[in-house]
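User: Sequence in, structure out. Go.
Assistant: Echoing your sequence, followed by the structure tokens.
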Amino acid sequence: MIDLSIKSEQLYRFLYECLDKREIAIITHRYGLYRHKPLTQREVAKKLNISRSYVSRIEKKALSTLKKKYDKTSFLDKG
């Protein structure tokens, strides 16, 4: 439970350290962060007035960026 809390805090911090405004908006809406209801890519696209495929590309890039940050952080914690 404590590990989940730490990971959650890291996620919210990493969002603002690593992502731009559009990426934050997409990740927030897609995964229901900040008490938003999780939305489909199509719903996010409509809300942000962009194509669904563009949402998909941005989401994929943002998740990759966050994963790299997590991996780097967990490597530093172990080392």
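User: And one key feature?
Assistant: The chain has a mean pLDDT of 90.
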